């Protein structure tokens, strides 16, 4: 092994924290102007990063849905919509039970099926 090669050292979190503390210090003891500048700039950076990450996530999710639909349309995959709808109903029942503290009774389920049936036949 070549002794002239430099090996990267892991970042010491204590050093990083001390650097940040040294730069920013205790913000609450500084002037109001500096506090506003630090708050505004950190908010701007946070918003910018959230925008970039959100855009990438939305693009990936939307692209994935479009690709799945295209693959379904071309016959590469087959989506079992009945199974998906059953699982969605089960999850919604569990969520409703967690929120309200009581499970949906059979009358609510019959009412929901009737509403879905009605919407299916109205154009």
Question: What labels describe this entry?
Answer:
single chain; 123 residues; mainly alpha; 2 domains; 0% strand; elongated; transmembrane helix; FUN14; membrane; transmembrane; FUN14 domain-containing protein 1
Explain what the structure shows.
The chain has about 120 residues and is mainly alpha-helical. The protein has two domains: about 10-80; about 80-123, no CATH class. It has four helices and no strands. It has helices at about 15-25, 30-75, 80-100, 105-120. The longest helix is centred in the middle third of the chain and has 43 residues, at about 30-75. The radius of gyration is 28 Å and the shape is elongated. About 0% of the residues are buried. The mean pLDDT is about 80.
């Amino acid at each position: 092994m070549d002794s002239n090669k430099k090996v990267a050292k892991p970042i010491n979190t204590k050093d990083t924290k001390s650097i940040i503390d040294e730069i920013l210090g205790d913000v609450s003891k500084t002037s109001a102007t500096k506090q506003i500048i630090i708050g505004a700039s950190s908010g701007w950076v946070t918003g910018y990063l959230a925008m970039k990450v959100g855009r990438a996530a939305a693009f990936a999710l939307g692209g994935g849905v479009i690709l799945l639909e295209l693959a379904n349309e071309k016959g590469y995959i087959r989506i079992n919509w009945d199974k998906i709808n059953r699982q969605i109903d089960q999850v919604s029942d569990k969520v409703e039970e967690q929120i309200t503290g009581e499970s949906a009774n059979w009358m609510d389920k019959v009412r929901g099926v009737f509403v879905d049936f009605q919407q299916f036949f109205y154009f």
